[in-house]
Every structure is written in C-alpha cells, then in structure tokens.
C-alpha cells in the first residue's frame, strides 16, 4: 500500500497463517537446510562421565517458497527480520546432546528470494568417547551429528560452508578454551536409516581438540621427577647409617602427600588407565628403594654384630663375581678377597684368620720357680690383654668383611634400581611420542 516501505504486516499475515506447514509449493520437493557452526568455547571435559561441554554459534539456512517478493514493488527492501515463532523452521537437533541450553535469536532474516537465515547460540552438553591413555598429551575426537528429528526425506541437510572454512572460523573466534585448543573440524554427509525411514544427517565426525599439557607438566611431572631424583641421590648416603632409611621414609611420606594434593588434577574414567599411572609406579619404586635400604642395613648391622664368619659362597659370589661385574672399587688399603685370602698364613687349626704376632715369651707355668707372684700376675694380665686384643681384632675384621658385602650389594641394587627407573621412563616417553605423532 502507498505510504508503506517494504512488505507490510497485512501481506505477511497469510504467510504467518501457514506456519504449521512446510514452506513448499510442491510437497514432493524436499526443503534444503544448510548448516554451519562456529565452535566458540570449550567449557569443560569430564572424563569420568564422558561428557564434553561446548558453546556453539549455529547458523541455519533454508528456502521459504511462500515468502518471496519483488523489491521494486516494496521500495527496494530486500531483507526483513521476522519472528521465528511465526514461521516454519526445520527441527535440526544434535543427536549426541545430553543437555541443550539454547539461546536462540527470536528473529530470522528473510531475503526477498525466500532464503532465510536463523542464528542460534547453543550450550551443548554432549556425549563423547574420551580417551585419556596419553594424558596429559591426549587428543580427543568428538562427534556432533546434526539432522532433523521429525522429517525423513522432506528435509535434506547439507553443510553451508566447507569444513576447512568452519575450522578456520572456529580457530579465529575460539575464546574460552581453557586447557583445550581446537585442532581441526572434519565431517561428512550421510543417510541415517531405520527400517523404511531415512534421515539426512551431517556428521562432524572429527571435532579434534587437544589438551594443553603445560599445567600438568609444571605441577605434576616436574615435581615428581625432582622427588625421584632426590630418591636416587639418597643412595649416596652411607649405607651403614640409619639416616638413609629415615630419609627415604620421609621422602615417601612427602610423595604421598603430593599425590593427594594433585589428585584433583588427574582424570578418572572407567574406560581405561592413563599412562600417567607413572606416579603410582614411582611410589612403588620408592618403596622398593626403602626395602633395599632395610636389607643392606640388616646385612651391615645384624650379621656383623653376631660375629659370624662370612660364608664361603658369599665370598665367591658377592665379593668376587658381583664385585667384578659392577666394577666395585676396593679401598687402597684393602685387596680383593681372591688375592688376600691366598697370601694369608693359616693358623694352627687350619683356618685362614689373620693372626697377631705374639711376643716370644714363656708361659707363666714355664717360668722358674724363683719368679715371684708379682711376675706371674703380670704375665696373666698380659695374656688376658692379648686375648682381648685378639677378640677385638677378629670382631673388627668380621665387621669389615660384612661391611664390604653390604657395600657390594648396595652398589648392585642401586644399579638395578637405576635400570628400572630408566627403562620405565623410556617406555613412558616413547609411548607419549608415538601417541603425539599419530
């Protein structure tokens, strides 16, 4: 009418009355719905419940065959905004959604050619099969499947933009990503069929997001590595000192407290165990280290305080073969047992114990009768002193022998401990590198 610019309310009323019907002149022709979205934020990932929370900008395009006008007859107006509730709109849903909090724009833009654009802002809580095996260097592939819920072949869906363009736009506008970053968006168009019914769907089958591992490397890996390094250096404490055992117990207690504090940062899921179980293995290795210290302490103190001889098989196996195997460096004033035992003179009873050079003097009973009782008492005191010194020397030699047995075993177990830690660290790093390179 004259005095009105563009389509009027009266002219639109007939279109609004057809809102329950699909806007197609020929109902055998399907309505094409084009879909594009921009991943604006990754709000959260819950590994235990396998839930991904994202925020999307969703844009729908379709053709409304009843809403067409000539711009020349409407003062050159080519586009108007109309309430979405007054028009038919495709029922496009996301199949994986557990909770859909939509903040849809109440208006759509209608072009004079009948093409309509509807922008929606979606907060999606969707199901996603999360793999945390390579945590914290994991990459997750989540699926968003867009399609019609009610219409089978009446509504056809297709992407409005190429997947590269959607990926580029998402990387450009991705803001609230937290510890996650977008890697790529890939997809395909397929047909979902149940019996005789078919639905066109768009499956964005690889919305690839990658975890930023800096937080976990700084708060988990580096402190754990430092504690393990301190545990390794504790082997350089004297093994005959009880300070090593108390130091290792304190270290285990501190590492346990560290794991309890960092427990909230570790993912928990029933689908698999992450490689980061490394922390539990490190705790087990610390316990093994403490057990090794207990064994060495027992060898150095318990056996030596009993004044028992070192068995011959221990001399051969530990002090000879194992010492040569681990390249044990003997002190300058002590020779290896294979050489020292060969040169030592044997005693009268056939043993090879070191002897003390005794002064050549007669026994008290061989002294002339003219000697007084004072001289006999002095000789008796000298005999007792000689026996006491001999006993002390024997005890010292036994302690030295057991001490060397303990040192050799300590060197051996320390190298085995280093080998275990090195092998485990190489396995973990290799698995992480293989997973990242995929």
pLDDT averaged over residues: 75
Q: Strand fraction band?
A: 15-25%
- Poorly predicted regions are 338-363
Amino-to-carboxy terminus distance: 66 Å
> What letter string, H or E per element, gives the SSE order?
HEEEEEEEEEHEEHHHHHH
Integer-rounded radius of gyration: 43 Å
GO molecular function, one term: extracellular ligand-gated monoatomic ion channel activity
Transmembrane segments: 214-237, 249-269, 275-300, 416-436
Domain Neurotransmitter-gated ion-channel transmembrane: 220-428
Biased composition (Polar residues): 347-372
Folded structure, characterized:
The protein contains 8 helices and 11 strands. About 20% of the residues are buried. The strands form 2 sheets. Strands 1, 2, 3, 5, 6, 7 and 9 form a 7-stranded mixed β-sheet that branches. Strands 4-8-11-10 form a 4-stranded antiparallel β-sheet, covered by helices on one side. With about 450 residues, it is of the alpha+beta class. A hairpin with a 3-residue loop joins strand 6 (about 105-110) and strand 7. Residues about 340-365 have low confidence and may be disordered.
Write the layout of secondary structure elements.
Elements: H1 9-17, E1 31-46, E2 51-63, E3 79-83, E4 92-94, E5 97-102, E6 107-111, E7 115-127, E8 139-148, E9 155-159, H2 163-173, E10 180-194, E11 197-211, H3 214-233, H4 243-261, H5 278-305, H6 312-325, H7 337-343, H8 373-437
Parallel strand pairs: 1-9
Antiparallel strand pairs: 1-2, 2-7, 3-6, 4-8, 5-7, 6-7, 8-11, 10-11
In brief:
This is 5-hydroxytryptamine receptor 3A-like. By secondary structure, the chain is an alpha+beta fold. The protein is built from eight helices and eleven strands.
